[in-house]
Amino acid sequence: MKIKIVLSVVFFLCTINNYSQRTESNFNNNWQFILDTDNLEFSAENFVDSNWATINVPHDWSFEKGVRKGGDQGQGGGYHDGGIGWYRKFFTVNKSSLTKTIYIDFDGVYMNSDVWINGNHLGKRPYGYISFRYDISKYLKEGKNTIAVRVDNSLEPSARWYHPCGIYAPVKLIEVSKSHISPNGIFITTPKIQTNQAQVNVEVDYINPSNGLQYQFTVVTPTGKKIQSKIQKLDGDKSNTSLTVNNPLLWSPETPVLYQLITQVIQNKKVIDEVKTNFGFRTVEWKKKTGFWLNGKNVKLKGVCEHWEGGPVGGAWTKPMLRWKLQLLKDMGINAIRPSHNPTPPMFYDICDEIGLLVMDEIFDGWHKKAPQDYGKQAFDKWWKADMKEWITRDRNHPSVFVYSLGNETHSPVAPELVKFGKSLDDTRLYSSGAGNPEDMDITGINGGSETKSFLEFAKFDKPFVSTEAPHTWQTRGYYRTQTWWRDNELPGTYPLPNLTEKEIFFYEGLDPKKWKNRKQRYNSSYDNATVRISARKNWEVMRDTPWHSGHFRWTGFDYYGEAGLVHGGLPFNLFMGGALDVAGFEKDLYYFYQSQWTKETMVHILPHWTHPRMKKGTVIPVWVYSNADEVELFLNGKSLGKDKPGTVWNEMQCDWMVPYEEGKLEAVAYNNGKEEKRISIATSGVPQSLKNSLNKLKAEGGFSSSYIFTSESIDSKATLYPYGENRVYYHISGDVEKVSMENGNPIDSISRTKSDFRTLFFGKGRLFLREKDNAKKASVITASILGDKALYLSNLISIDVQKIGIIGEISKSNLEVLYTTNGADPLKEGAAYTKPFEVENNTTVKAIVKQNGKLILQLEETFGANQGLFWGDEKSANIWNGRGVNIAAEEAILKGGAKVSNDAKHFKGTGFVKFDNKEGSITFYQENDGEAGDFSIRFGYMHNDEGKTYPMKLFVNDVYIKTFEFPATGGWIQNWEFVNTIVNFKSGANNIRLETTGQSGPYIDELFID
C-alpha cells in the first residue's frame, strides 16, 4: 500500500546531515545502595560508599526484604516494610558533553525522592508513581561525577495495597543540544480519519530556540518506509504542523498498527536534535445508549484492573518480564486494562501500543488521605498539577490510551478543577474515574456497586457508563468447593448463585479452621462460586447483553501482594486472590472461562483435577469444561458421558456433567461443525516421585537482558501432575544468571521469595525467576526435592529427585551425589547414598544433601506425617465459623427514638446509614448464629466530625450490657468512615445487638460487621 504525504512548504533536502543528535544512555546498572541508615553526608560528591551493596535498577527493597509480622506497610501492603534507602552512582562525562544539555530521567521512584548531583540538591518528588527528570548540565564536570538519590518511605502505610520501595523503574541519561525539543514536548493528534485519508496534527515545544533553526517531520509507515515531509522555519518556542496520510491503517486491539513520526531540529543543514514518536490512527466514541465505539464499531471493553505490583517481582519490572505479564492477560482475551490506581512507567504503554491493549490511564487513588500516610495526605494539594502535567503530556501520544481516569473511590470539590486542567493539556480524550465525583466526569465509572442485580437492571445515566471495577470474584488455584461462598454472606439485591451440590464434597484447607482468625481465612473455590456480589459468568452475560454497558475492568488480572487483612483476614495470608492468574503467573480456571468467551482459537479446559484419594468412590463431582467449540463430549475411562454445548446464559456457559468419582482418566473432546477439533485429558495421579522442569526464555529488550522462567511441577511415575504437591524445591544457581524471585502463588507462604534457596510447591507447581547477567555465556540450575505425600495418606514412599538443567550454553558434566537420613542425623556425617525410593513412618523428618563433584551445594529437609501440609477435614470442620463474617446494614435494623435513615453522605455501605440529629435513640440488629455459642469479633462503621466529642453509646447483647463505646471524630461528615470494635459472646440461634445513646446524640452509624 502506498502512503503519500502532502507537502505544503519546502521539499526534503537531501543535503541534511545528522550531527550532534540526542543520545540516551541506559543508567540502570551498578548503583550502590544502603538501607535504613540515613545520613545527609551520603549526598556528598566524594563520600566513600565502597561497603554499600551493588545493585541494578529496577530495584524494590521492600520486596527483597519480604514479609514480616508487624511489617511497616501493614495488612494493606502484605506486611512488607518501608524505610529509607540511599542510592549512589558514579559516571564519566566527556569535555565535549559540557556544552550540551544533560537530563537525568527517572521513570519511577517510590516515594519522596531527593536527588543530588556532585553534592548539589536538584529537587524533591513526593509521588511514587510518576516519572520526572532534572537538568543536571550546570553541575557537571569533565571526568567523574556522582549522583545520589534518597528515597523516604519512613511514613507508612503510604498506600492501600503493596507498594515498591526504591528506584523501581528504569533510569536514563539524556544528552541533547542546547536547542532541543522539550521533554514530553510533542503532541500528535489525528482529528480527521477517513478510509482514504487522515490528518495528522503535530504540536512541538522547544527549549532555547535560536535564529536560523528549522524543523522537519518524517512519517514512517508500519512497514518501515519513510515518507518525507516538509521542512519549516522555527519561529518561537512552539510549532504547529499538519500532515495528510493516505489510506491510513487503523490501530485496534486486533490490529495494533503503529506509525512513527520522526521530529528533527535542523541548524545549518545539520540535525541537532531528533525524537521518534510512535502513534496510531483510531477513532473513539462514547454513547449513552450503546456504550463504547472504536473505529466505528460498537465494542465491549473486556478489561482487567491491574496493580503495577501484581506478579512475581514486586514493583521491579523489567521490560521482558512486563511483556510476559501483559501478553498473558492479552492471551486470556482481554482488550483493555486499567492500571490501578496510578500511572505506570512508560514501557507499560509502549507494550500496550504494540500488542493491542486499550488503556484506561489512571493518575490518583485519592484526592485526599485514604491510607494513613499516602500521597493524598503528604503531597496532593501542592503537587497534583505538576504530576498531572507530567502524566498527560507523557502519555497522550499513545494510541492505547483511550480515556483518562482521575481518581478512585474518592470525592472532593477539586474534581472539576482536575478535569479542567486535564483538558487544557489534552482535550482529545474524555475523563472518568473509579466512582470519584461521577457528576463531574465525562464518563460515569462505578466500581463494586456496578455488580448488583438492582444496579444492572434498573440503573439509568445521563452520560456513558463503564464498570471500572467489576466483577470481584476470588479463586485459589487448584482449590475447589461446591458450596457457594459470599464474602459478606448473600447480600440483598444480588443475583442468585446456587450451590453445586446439596452438601459439600471437598474438605481440605490451607489452614485448620480452628486456627483461623476469622471466616475469611480459607481458600476460595475455583468453580466461580466464591464472590463478593456476582459470579464472573453472570457479570459477563449482563454486560454482554446490556447495550448501555460499555464494559468492565475485572478486579483483577493477576493476584497481588497486600490487602491481606481486609480481604483474607490477615497473617499468614499476605496477598490478595482476586486475579485470573496467581502471582507466579499460573493460570487459574477462571482464566480459561474468559478465554472461552473472549477468544476464537478453539480451546478446551477441564476442572476440577481428577485426583481425590480421600473421596469416597461414587461421590458425584461437578465436572466443568470451558470451551468455545460448538459442543464437547466427556469421557471417563473411555466411556462417553454425553455431549454438552456451551450456552449463552451464565450457568450454561460451561459444559457440565455430574460424574460419580472413580480413579482413571477424564477426556474432553471439542467438536466444530461435527468434526473433532481438540482433545485434552486429565488423570488420577499417584504419589509424586519426580519434578517436571521446564524453561521459558524472555528475550532481551529495552536495555534489559533476557529473563528466564523456570517452572517445576510434581509428577508421579506416569508423569501425571500430582495436584496436591507441597514439597520444597531447592535451587542451586550457577553461572551468568541471577535469581529474581521464587513464587508459587500460595497466599499463606511467607518464606522469603528472594533470599531462601527453596520454595514449596503450591498445589503441585512453583517457579524460579532468573535474569541474565551482562555478557552471559554459561548458566545452569540444579533442582532438588524430597518428594512424597506430606500426610503419608496416599503412600509412605519417599523419593529424592535431583536434576541439572542448562539455562545458557552447554551443560557441563557433573557428578551429583545424594546422601540422606530419616532419623534426624546429619546426612553429611551419617547419610546413606540415595539410590531408590524408600518408606518412612509417621512424623519422619528426611534430611538430605546434594554434592556436585564432591562439593556440598544443597541441604534439604522435609517432614512427613498425618498432621503435615494441607488440612484434611470433614463436613463439620468449619462449623465453628457458620454465621460469621456478616455485615448488617444499620438502615435495616430496628430504629427507635431519634434514629432515622439517611443517605446524605458518601461511601456508605448498602442503601444508607443512621443518624440521630442531636436526639437520643437506639439501633437494634438481629443476628442468627447458625453455629455453636462462642466469641465473635464485632465492629461498627461510624463517622462524625465534632472535635472533642465522642458521642458515647452503650452496647447490649441479648439485653445484657457489654460496654460503652466512645466514637472519636473521624475528620468529616461526608466520607470519613472508621470503626470501633470489641469481642462479644453470641448464643446459638437468635441474638440481638443494641446500640443506644447515653446522654448525648450519636454519630452516623453505617453497619455492624461480625467475624
UniProtKB/TrEMBL annotation:
Stated family: Belongs to the glycosyl hydrolase 2 family.
Pfam families: CHB_HEX_C_1, DUF4982, Glyco_hydro_2, Glyco_hydro_2_C, Glyco_hydro_2_N
Taxonomy of the source species: Bacteria, Pseudomonadati, Bacteroidota, Flavobacteriia, Flavobacteriales
Gene3D superfamilies the record matches: Galactose-binding domain-like, Glycosidases, Immunoglobulins
Superkingdom of origin organism: Bacteria
InterPro entries associated with the record: Beta-gal/glucu_dom_sf, CBM6, DUF4982, Galactose-bd-like_sf, GH, GH29D-like_dom, GH2_Domain-Containing, Glyco_hydro_2
Domain CBM6: 886-1011
Organism of provenance: Flavobacterium pokkalii
Keywords noted in UniProt: Glycosidase, Hydrolase
Coiled coil start-end: none
Name listed for the protein in its UniProt record: Beta-galactosidase
